[in-house]
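User: I'm new to structure prediction. If I give you an amino acid sequence, what do you actually give back? Let's try with this one:
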Amino acid sequence: MNVRRLIPTAALAGAVALGATALTACSGAGATGGEDGKLGVTASFYPLQFLAEQIGKEHVKVDALTKPGVEPHDLEITPKQTAQLGEADVVLYLKSLQPAVDKAVAQSGVKNIVDAATLTSPEAHDAGPGHGEEGHAHQEGDEHTGEHAGEQTGEHAGEHEGHDHGGNGTDPHVWLDPVKYAEIAKGVGAALEKADPGHAADYRKNTDELVGKLAALDTEFKDGLKNTASRTFITTHSAFGHLAGRYGLDQEGIAGVDPESEPSPARMKDLQAVAKKDNVTTVFFETLASDKTAQTLATDTGLKTDVLDPLEGITEKSQGTDYFEVMRSNLKNLQKALGAK
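Assistant: Good question. You get back a string of structure tokens that encode the predicted 3D arrangement of the chain. For your 341 residues, that looks like this:
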């Protein structure tokens, strides 16, 4: 398993005491980057870029370090990007998701640095219905250092390869849970208010509107996945632990959190048994990674294939043009695969 993709639960819990501000230092009074007077915001990848654009609107100029079609986990920062990062008024990133970004942010000297991992924390119900004790045990184990968490993951990789009841100690994809994404949105809104107090009222209004839309999306998922023939889905990329935990589903990842790694023959055999036992109809793959493994498993088991998008970036292949459209496509695909009634 590629440990670059791991993020310990402790990092997600993070400095919750920082609260909505999540700033590494107090900002100056009304920073405005660039000659156009707009607040210069640099976001590490799409989910944070989307929040900045939705909350900042006409008051911000948003640049993203991860360009469309690039796997965020594998991003390398150029010297030019590092220099541009240092000129930003606000930097939004998710610590431990992109090591190159972590290093560049640490060297940037920017006053307003928002680590999205500090804006939301693990919750007991993340383990999903019927698996509370197991999920809780995983979370306690992950409260050690990131290094130790990585060691534990390696030790037990063979035992629990790809299986996830929603214990999300190693899953950084918090934005796929609309409730947690709303928490991050509130923190980003507060950061923009502090960096640009002259437009604080607009940032607050836009944040409230976005949080309302995310609450509506959460309701759509709850209602849409309430009554299904199966609660288990198989995916190449174990990116959906937070989503599964929120809506009481069981995620079975073919290759853990690294979509490019090859699963063992034993894992493929285990998944065939799971598919038969839990009435699984579909193997999901994603738009930014190869579907070869999904196709292999589907062929061996007679299953269908479909897209479940971890929303790490938007491309012309995405089933939607923004976060909400793609999430609703994910819901539709899950409903179809799980036999929603």
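You can read the tokens as a compact description of the fold. Here is one thing that stands out. The chain has a mean pLDDT of 78.
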